[in-house]
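Structure ticket #2291
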Amino acid sequence: MLSEVRVRNYAVIDEVELELDRGMTVLSGETGAGKSILVDALGLVLGDRAEAAAVRHGAERADIAVTFELADLPDVRAWLAEQDLDAGEECVLRRVVSREGRSRAYVNGNPAPLQTLRRLGEQLVEIHGQHEHQTLTRSAVQRDILDAHGRLTELRQAVAAAYDEWRSAAERLAELKERRAQRDERIDLLRYQVRELESLGLEEDEQATLELEHARLANTGRLAESGGEALMLIYEDESGSAQQRLARARDGLARLAETDPALAPLAAQLQEAEIQVSDAATELRSYLGSLEMDPARLDGVENRLGSIRDLARKHQVEGAELPVRLAALQAELAELEQAAEALEQLTDERDRAAARYREHATALGKKRAAAAPGLAEGITATMRQLGMPGGHFELRVEHEPDRDFSPHGLDRVEFAVTANPGQPAAPLARVASGGELSRIALAVQVVATGGTRIPCLVFDEIDTGVGGGVAEIVGRRLRELGDERQVLCVTHLPQVASQGHQHVRVSKLTDGKTTRTTLAALSEDET
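Resolution: structure written out below.
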C-alpha cells in the first residue's frame, strides 16, 4: 500500500506531504489546480523519464519520495531481498531531478538504476491516465491486458524462456554455418599455428626457469669474482679470515670462562658462528666449482627465450600464456574439423527448442482463448452501464502457428467493438468517435484491472467525457475496487468523488508573483 507521498519543487508544487490510507482516495479540485501533477510526480518516482522542466522555477532540484507498506506483499519483499535492497516492512523510493535534467534514484536509501525503479514500480502501482485510450489501440497493449486479466504471467514467462532458448540455438547454428563457409581457410591457419606452438613444446614455468638460467650464464664472470672474494674473506685469507678471527675470539673467551663462567655461553655462540662460517665456505666453494663459462649453453638459452618471446608477440599474449593459447586453438580446430557433426547436433538442438517453444506457445494460446470471453463479457456489461446500451465488445484471439516466433507467443490478440446493435464489431483502432473510445477504454480499465494483483491503482481523470448517471456508475465501480485494494482517483466529477473513502482537496494559491499547489485532507464534514 502507498502510505506517504512527499514532493518538493516539482512543477508548481513547492512542498507537499500526503498521507494515504486503504480504500478509495479522491483527489479533487478546480481545473488547473494541479491534481494530475501529483500523479505525474508519482510516475517520475516510479521510473518515468525526467526532464529539467519538471523542476520548479527558481529551485535547484526536484525531490520526490514515496513510502510503501509491504507487510502484505511478501513477493515484493523477496524481490527486494534478491536485489540487496530489503529494509523490512517499508520501502522508500526517491527520485531527485536537477535543474540540468540529470536525475538520481534511490531505493531504501541505496542508489539504484532507473530500471530497478521501473521493475519495482510495476509490482506496486498501476497508473491509468485520461489519455490511455490512445495506447489501448495497440496490439501489444491489448495482449498485455488479456494476459494480466487471465493471470497468465507464469505461462507467458515460460514462453519467453523457451523463445530465448530457441533463439540462442538458432543464432549459434547460423554462426556455425557462416564459419563453415570459411572453414577450409581457417583450418589451414589453425593447423599452422597449432604445429608452430606444438613444436615449441613450452613447458609450465619454463620461461621463468630459462630467464633465471640466462641471468646466471650471462654473469658467470662476475659471480665467480665476487664469490671468490667472499670465500677469501670468510675462510681463506691467511692474513686473517672471518673464520680465523672467530676461532681466536672463541679461544680467548673459553680461557676467560675458566675465571668467569658467565662468558661460557658467549664462547659457545662464537663456536656456533665459526661452524656456520665453515659450512657457508664449503657451500660457496662448491658453488664456485660449478661455475664455468658455457657460451654454447648461453646461446641456446637465448635462442629458446627468443623463440618464446617471438611467438608470444605473434599471438599477443604473455609467454607463460602460450600453452593456454595452444589449447584454445586446438579446441577451435577440433570443432571446425568436426563441423559436420556439430552442425547436425546444433540443428537437432534448435529443432528441439522450437518444439518446446511451440508447446508452451500453444498452451498460452489456449489459456488466452479461454480467458477472452469472460473479459469481453465483463467489458460489454460495463460499456452498457457507461451509456452505451447497444455496445458489444469482442476479444479475438487467433493462434497463428506459422508466424515468426516471438517472446509473446504465436497469437494475434485484437479488441473489436461496436457501439450500435446489429452492427458488426470492428477493430478498436478503427472506432471513429473519440468519446466512445474514452468510454470503452474506461470499461476496459475498470474490468481488466480487477484481474491484476497490483496493490495500488491510480486513475487520473479517466472519467473525462462522462457525466450524470454514468459518472455515478463509474464512481461505484471505482469504490468496489477500493474495497479490495488501494485506489487513488483524480476527478472533477462530484458523482465520482462522492464514492471515495477519503478525500484530498488540491488547491492552487498565488500571490501575484508565484504560484503553488497545496493539498489538504478533508474531514467527513468537509466532503
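Closing remark: The longest strand covers residues 2-10.
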